[in-house]
Each structure stands twice: as structure tokens, then as C-alpha cells.
Design brief:
47% helix, Arc Repressor Mutant, subunit A, two-stranded antiparallel sheet, globular, 70 residues, alpha+beta, 2 strands
């Protein structure tokens, strides 16, 4: 099993609940104090590299969804 940091795990869980989300959706789902958009974007990119999330470009933004076999 892939080792995730506390924040990575939190983002993974938020994304799994939403099924598909943008960075803004993920930030809005965090409890206060919410992390900065750039922080979430960086962590989402790390989760993509760890094959936890997939991305899909839709219009001018990206949608992120969980990888099924994680």
C-alpha cells in the first residue's frame, strides 16, 4: 500500500467522497482553516504521481477523480 501523508490522505478522502472534483471543490470541502489553493494543487499533483488520483482536462480546468484500484 502506498504511504500517504496526513494531508494527502485527507485530500484523497475528500476526492473519493466527491467522486470527481476541481482544486477549488477540494479546498471548499476542507474544514477551517482551509489550506491555500496552491498547497492543495501541489498535493493533488503528488497524489497523481503516486497513482491515487487521475486528472482530466475539462474546459479551462482539471477534474480529479480517484484511481479505482488504490
Amino acid at each position: 500500500m502506498k504511504k500517504l501523508t496526513k494531508r494527502e490522505d485527507q485530500i484523497k478522502k475528500i476526492n473519493w467522497e466527491m467522486k470527481s472534483a476541481t482544486i477549488r471543490d477540494i479546498v471548499d470541502a476542507f474544514p477551517e482553516p482551509t489550506p491555500h489553493d496552491n498547497t492543495v494543487a501541489t498535493l493533488v499533483m503528488i497524489l497523481e504521481k503516486k497513482d491515487v488520483l487521475n486528472s482530466k482536462k475539462i474546459a479551462n480546468s482539471y477534474q480529479f477523480s480517484p484511481v479505482q484500484d488504490f
